[in-house]
Amino acid sequence: MRIKILSSNWITEMKIFFHNPHNKALLWQTIFGFLTNNKLSEKTKKYLYLIEYLNNNNIPFGIYLDYKGTSFPKKFQFLCQRKWFIRLEVYLWLHLKHIKRSNVVIIDDPDLISKNDILFSFSYETLDTEYKGLNSIINKPFLKLFHFSHYNQRTSLIAEQFLKIKWDYIIAENNLKKVDYFNKFFTYYNKSVYQLPFHARENFRNKIGFDKRKKMGLSIWGLVDIKWFWNLFDDLYTFYKVPWIQPLRAEILQNKDLLKWVIDTPVVPLRKWSLKDVLLWFFWASSISKYYNFDMCDKFNEYQMFLCCEEIWWLPWIWFVEWMASWCAYIWRDDNMYKNIWLIPWIHYIWHNGTLKDIVDKIKYYQSHQEELQNIAKKGEEFVNTHFRSAIIAEKFYNDLKDLSDDYKKCNYNKERLIFKNSFILK
Q: What's the DSSP call for residue 68?
């Protein structure tokens, strides 16, 4: 597949090349998810805003295809191994998201990626499998970045694959170098992890007066029992020795009736597919579709407080900033994953010490101290609107990538001297 030169700056200016974006549900609903009405695939588009920012600002970007990835399951391998099928999937993916074809170039030859460019991929659905598609870029001179969302799944395999293909930088919602679990498997990684905050989509706004909301905390999201998915989380269990990925959520669910006056708990245990799920997968393709089949923005506006109970490998909850954007006070731990990005306890959020008793005590206190609670919720909302809206996050991240590329050039393309600067982090 030949590259189309978009302008005289195409070769000299930095461009982001997304690796197989069509099969990454973290970017946007995949074609297979679209065809099967998969609610999980539709709502977990955590990083679509990056492509939307480039598209809306007419910034050229690229797609690198290795023809090893597709959103369709293995039963369709007779099609998925054909280049024309993957190309068709990519074109449909771009069309459904209204991506301007004049802004994007699709390539399958890594030699067409210049030293000024950056290749962006995800560990999820790539490094957590016996993936061979990236072997062709091992010794290429351009910069290679991996986002480590879901790095808790098959972590030892991810660490092995990451080392093998010689990637340059890791991106996550926390500086994982400060996390013991990460350091056990990535002892060879001697750089900081670029902390990219979650973003708040524009539809998440304050819709209901604070005094009209429930004076309770809402604990929501899935609850994963490691034994149900042992093939994914065996490393996690061996390290932490706990049965749940979200132990505090499990404790809240187990005490649901006792806590009903302070915490509303529509937590859904995540399970493997049943026979019924398999038979109906074309119409209801996710085993947790029921959980996603509600309007999150409306739900967030029903409550004055919320808690997500961080997962044991120390990454924040996917939608915490969107809840804050809905004028809801966040109850969470006092941790650097928040303080690094300028969030201050008792000003932007309510701190708890990691125990259920302390969470309950905090909620009871603020149920009778409404003015204090409302001020914290308002400060959190204002901070998100100022710093964590999608376009703001995307612009800062893109500019940091441009600076990284410029510095790489100034270093005469010497990666050993390169530092990935972060505009989000408290200096």
A: -
Pick the CATH number of 210-387 from 3.40.50, 3.40.630, 2.30.170, 2.60.200: 3.40.50
Give the C-alpha distances (Å, rounded to integers) separating 71 from 88, 134, 149, 209: 12, 17, 18, 42
CB 122 within 8 A of CB 30: no
Domain boundaries, the chain: 16-199+390-417, 210-387
Of 150, 89, 86, the residue nearest 121 (C-alpha): 150
Tell me the three state secondary structure of residue 356: helix
pLDDT in tens, 354-378: 899 999 999 999 999 999 999 999 9
Which residue from 377, 307, 318 is spatially nearest to 349, judged by alpha carbons?
A: 377
CATH of domain 16-199+390-417: 3.40.50
Instruction: Give this prediction's pTM.
Output: 0.87
Q: Summarize pLDDT for 294-335 with one digit per residue, the tens.
A: 567 888 899 999 987 677 888 887 778 888 999 999 998 878
Q: How far apart are CA 18 and CA 367, in angstroms?
A: 47
Identical fold for domains 16-199+390-417 and 210-387, yes or no, is yes
**22 and 48 Cβ atoms separated by less than 8 Å:** no
* C-alpha span between 53 and 92 (Å, rounded): 20
Cβ 265 vs Cβ 219: under 8 Å: yes
* Burial of residue 193 (number of CB atoms within 10 Å: 0-12, 13-18, 19+): buried
Antiparallel, parallel or unpaired: β 329-333 and 61-64: unpaired
